[in-house]
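Entry:
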Amino acid sequence: MIPLPDLSTPEGRAIYRGELRGIARPIRYMGVILTLAGLGLALFRHLSMPTLPAILPLVFIILGVLHMLAGMLVRMRYHQRRMRGE
């Protein structure tokens, strides 16, 4: 069993905040990358290649948003388990 984090001091809160930042970081960063790639594709399609299917940038943006939501869910569940002392 992992001990509960010490949230009564500013140092303890900072340490726990850093711990939470590391949870699901690759999932969240992949979401940001996919979303930016989708926005870039949409801009590229608008400016220089209108024959590119419109669904392609939308798929990247949707996948990016889903990755970010999954990362937030994983982090939220980690926090809930951590507060219960699991």
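The mean pLDDT is 93.
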